[in-house]
Amino acid sequence: MMQPARSTIIPQWRLRISGSLVYTWRGCWWRSITDMPKSYASFVYETIARSGHGNTTTPGDLSSTTNADDGVTIEAEVGITMAWTQFLHSPNSWTRVSRQSMNFAAHNAVVQPTTVNLTVRDDGEGNVYLLVPYRSHGIRFSVEFQDDLYAYENSCAVAACDFIQDTVPGSAHYVSPLPVQDHPTVAIEPHNALLVFPIPFPPPDLIPNLASPNTYTVHPESVPTLSHITNSVVYFGPGVHYIV
């Protein structure tokens, strides 16, 4: 079960070092097995606890700090992240996943749920390839790496207690060494999760007519106020959209 501690979408492609935050996923792309020379980059989105801004009450106002419980315990301190990517495809396709920080091999990657039973290979250069079958209803899976798991330790013998960590000295919930008795491991999850959502192309009747007066187009970057829009269709064009 994923911890309810992620907040604010931070879209990054070819995730990179930005300030004090190290984004883990270097990239993801897919290509059709019937057109092997052609591949496409798949945009990766990533979330971090509290957006890296601390416990605040007003989005965008970094001075609005609070001690109120927001459901985040150790996630911000130890750098728990969640990333996801989505792409359209019609034939079966190969999807390549690579990481920014380290190389890995196919045997180190676990696809969840295991019932999707994907073929997993590597190229010996730190990239993993997943053969994604086409399904009319789409397919959803996560890619987990056995060298990138985090064990959540409870601070007491009952489930209502907070998590504790021994990763970042001087930060919240730091305990070192972690006690063994009466401090059970309650979950083992990816430190940096990656979810992949391959979906089929939409049918023609769901593709908006951009020339129609009933269609309002929202261009990439800052999303304007839409409360006054009376168009029956609001179309968000390709690119990054964000709300200030």
From TrEMBL:
Domain Glycoside hydrolase family 49 N-terminal, residue spans: 38-201
Membrane-crossing segments per the record: none
UniProt GO molecular function: hydrolase activity, hydrolyzing O-glycosyl compounds
InterPro entries per the UniProt record, alphabetical: Dextranase_N-ter, Glyco_hydro_49_N_dom
Coiled-coil region: none
Annotated keywords: Hydrolase
Any Pfam family matching the protein: Glyco_hydro_49N
UniProt protein name: Glycoside hydrolase family 49 protein
Native source species: Amniculicola lignicola CBS 123094
